Amino acid sequence: MMSLRSSMKRNAFFDSGKCGFKMRQLPCMGVVLCIITFFVVYRTTMYQFQHTQMEAKVHPFGTLKDSALASGLLGGLPVGIIRASSDLEMKPLWSSSSSRLKVDTSMRRNLLAIPVGINQKHNVDTIVQKFLPENFTVILFHYDGHLDGWWDLEWSKEAIHIVAQNQTKWWFAKRFLHPAVVSTYDYIFLWDEDLGVKHFDPGRYLRIVRSEGLEISQPALDPNSTDIHHRITIRSRTKRFHRRVYDKRGSTKCSDDSEGPPCTGFVEGMAPVFSRAAWYCAWHLIQNDLVHGWGMDMKLGYCAQGDRTKKVGVIDSEYIVHQGIQTLGGGGPPGKKTSNGEDTTKRYGTSTMDSRTEIRRQSTWELQIFKERWNEAVKEDEDWVDPFRGSRKRKRRRRHTTKF
Predict the structure, then answer these.
(1) Backbone φ and ψ of 111, nearest 5°
(2) Is 286 helix (H, G, I), strand (E, B) or coil?
(3) What CA–CA distance (Å, rounded) separates 209 from 213?
(4) Residue 178 in contact with residue 283, Cβ under 8 Å?
(5) Positive or negative, the Cα torsion across 374, 378, 381, 385?
């Protein structure tokens, strides 16, 4: 009897010991499970964050819908019905049942946008004919109101036409090339109408742009072009493309130490080409009320989605001729560059004025306003860091160390 009781006590003690051991194990297992759970959640969150970052870079326009949802502006709609982006492709009013079943494989992936006047119709036709074989969408901004004179061109009926009297390229672009509207296009060509394209092929041009990773670019200018303002835009006969220029003449000296416009990271406003992501940034840089766009070319490098000395370039092998024909405010015949003395227009039917002089005065005033706005924005945004300031400081330190 005593041995039975002793055995029972020993078993009870042993069982309670096992139970105690198990109880001591439970907190440890809980800690381990918490650590594992935390690690899984962290990795998943980081993956989602990185994926979102990549998506935002490749398709930045999707963030427009997200921001609107977060603000509650779209709260009255079911999320699945929202389409935040669009394009400029015309749709048929009707179609046969068989055509509705077909998948459109000829979706245009690039956009050509040009401000045009009827006096430059022949030259614009030549430009567009270069782009049509590459399946570009074409949009014409008519600044002179003469729309009917374009219908005899076969491709004109497939183009988008927008009419607004005496408005500039940047005025049109700000209002009709919103990032959400052009989000399906890989590249946006925002060109002037007075460009000669005899030595330009858009297909070859884009192959170079893609292979070199250029986000903002332009074709080089033939040295015989009119109104060449910056040496970096002049074609080099020995190169396929270039990102910088070397020039010891003039007030701006360009060398290997140069890190910004107009020596590197620069394109001019007459024929810029933007990637989808770069245009998303550039569109926001365009000021709604400063319509001539002076000074903006010096800041476009901030929209290059990275190092402007690498992601902005000029293509030499596909080059154009800038004819420098004055259009807005001009009253001369096609192809003739009017002088200030000839260039007078009547306003309100009463007084006359030298419109080209007034346009230049307005442009200069807008340039000053843009500079002031940039400086003020930099001053007010305490969180903004100039992405190019650090490299300038590092180069100055290297030169200082080498000198001493």
Answers:
(1) -130, 135
(2) coil
(3) 6
(4) yes
(5) positive
Q: Specify the residue for token string 């030595």.
A: 199
Q: Reduced to 3 states, what is the DSSP secondary structure of residue 219?
A: strand
- What is the DSSP code string of 89-122? ----S---HHHHHS-------EEEEEEE-GGGHH
Choose among 166, 138, 133: nearest CA to 150. 138
Nearest in space to 131 (alpha carbons), one of 175, 51, 170, 185: 185
**Angstrom distances, CA of residue 315 to CA of 151, 199, 260, 288, 305:** 33, 12, 18, 30, 19
How many Å apart are CA 120 and CA 325, to the nearest integer?
Answer: 9
Q: Give SS3 for 371.
A: helix
* DSSP code, position 234: B
pLDDT tens digits along 80-116: 888 888 888 888 888 776 655 554 545 679 999 999 9
The identity of residue 26, as a single letter, is L
Residues 6+ apart with CB under 8 A from 210: none
Structure tokens at 200: 């330009």
Query: If residue 355 lies in a helix (H) or strand (E), which one and from where to where?
Result: helix 355-380
pTM of the model as a whole: 0.75
> Can you give the pLDDT at residue 381?
95
Residues 66, 227: Cα–Cα separation, whole Å = 44
Query: What percentage of the chain reaches a pLDDT higher than 90?
Result: 55
